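tool_call: predict_structure(chain=1)
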Amino acid sequence: MLSGLRWLALEVKYLDRARAFYTDHLGLAVAEETEEEVRLDAGAHELVLRRPTSVPRGGLHTHYAFAIPGEEYEDRWATLEEAGFDLTEYTFGTSRSLYLDDPDDHCVEFGERGEGQGITGIFEIVLEVAALDRAVEFYTDLGFEPVDHGSGRERVRLAGPVDLELWEPHLGLADARGGVHVDVGFSAEEPEVTAEAVSDRACAVESIDGGTRILDPDGHYLTIR
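tool_result:
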């Protein structure tokens, strides 16, 4: 089964503009850069900014969430507000989350999660799916566990290496949308064995250097190493 999150890839139109947003305003550091993509250090994970030049592409209009310690939340809000961003806030129990859109219409969330300093990782990714029951079964067989159903059964939240939200097409909080053709990187002790659990329903399964890649029924890529 999947044991950890490695990266989330986003599709961007202009690398320089996207890099500037994430480094200058969100404080991420560049880990690696080519003409086609920029890999950013997002704590325990990587955020990949990718031009649409090959497959797997990065996701379109993907809603995802960064974890930050609660004591940094107010400062994060003040810094982004001073920079002129349109911010939205929601509270979940005792934890707050702020939302803003990046230059390519990805909805970025900062949630009060755990301890540490700065962005400590990615804790949630939202995927758009056409058939919710089919998608839930697919990801459950990869080791995720359903923990919450939305009203009208238009969304399901799954717990696993990352909190995964599967959304039928709709606008969520802060007008966020589930990502389309998202590429998510995972770790697994036995990538090929993991892929076998869903190979009969995957659109494609291929071997890659050091692992395997699954194309799910909704066009999302799971790159497993």
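agent: The CA atoms of residues 3 and 188 lie 5 Å apart. Proceeding to next step.
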